[in-house]
Amino acid sequence: MCDMDDAYYVYDRYDRCVGLGYHCESTHQIRRITGDDRAHFFDWLDLDFESVVETIAGDFTDVLRPGLVEPFSDGLCALDRGSDIRFFHDFRPSSGTALTRSDIDRQLDGVRAKFRALAERWRTLARSSAHVLYVHHDAFDELTAADLRRLRLVIATAYPRHRFDLLWLRRTPPPDGGALGPGISWGTVAAVPGRWEGDDAEWDAAFRDVRFAPPPPPSSREPEAQPAPEPSVPPGASATPAPSVTDRSTSV
Asked: Which parts of the chain fold into alpha helices (H)?
């Protein structure tokens, strides 16, 4: 976590740790560190900060609307124009490696069903008594303390009784880290060129002061979101360059 005298620390034990993007590195590392592989809405997606804020503020209703999902980045992923989220793992090409519009249209109902279930899982968790740590990986050091305060306000407004904190992870320390306010902390995780999973030691250090309740055994967990299978990324796979809407992301 951060080491600034005027920063806000959170040392309580959390029941869940939920990632809020930016891309697959955060999902992989959160699961590795916590040992909890339960799926959440923003797992394995490639999305900008504004997409996270707008999706939560809109109660997930603007994601994957029919007619707004199309092939992107030469067919490497599907872009949802309604939310600006890039889906690299949920739509499969019928042949070759490039998605087509017909591939997306044919699979859209199944993918929408999966994300409707994940949205309901989000709501259920946010309305429960669980203490949740949300993690946003600011992979390009673009955000400010005001952005993180806005994100926290959006979640708190939607779920007034929700007990949660935010962890803001950047490549370098934020110049305004002292202006975050209660319930928000920051840490750093350096990039590792050519390794989409990120640096294990860096992520371990960022979570050094965070404590989690042990996850329940698999037999007592809630069912995974269906019917679309949860995406997986082969261990040790290298990153595949894939320009985002703003042409600056590398995602897997």
From this structure: 24-34, 49-57, 101-126, 145-158, 200-206
Q: What are phi and psi of 25, to 5 degrees?
A: -55, -45
Helix, strand or coil, per DSSP, at residue 145:
helix
With tokens 């994601």, the residue in question is 63
The angle formed by the CA atoms of residues 24, 225 and 152, to the nearest 5 degrees, is 55
Residue with tokens 């019928």: 94
CA 244, CA 99: separation in Å to the nearest integer?
A: 16
Let me know how many helices (H) and strands (E) the chain has, helices first. Answer: 5, 11
Residue in 30, 11, 8 with CA at minimum distance from that of residue 19: 30
The whole-angstrom separation of Cα 125 and Cα 14 is: 13
pLDDT averaged per 10 residues in sequence order, the chain, 252 residues = 41 88 95 94 96 98 97 97 97 94 98 98 97 97 98 98 97 97 96 91 94 72 49 36 34 40
CA–CA–CA angle 102, 70, 27 (5° rounding) = 110
Sign of torsion, CA 108 37 48 239?
Answer: negative
d(CA 6, CA 81): 40
pTM listed for this prediction = 0.83
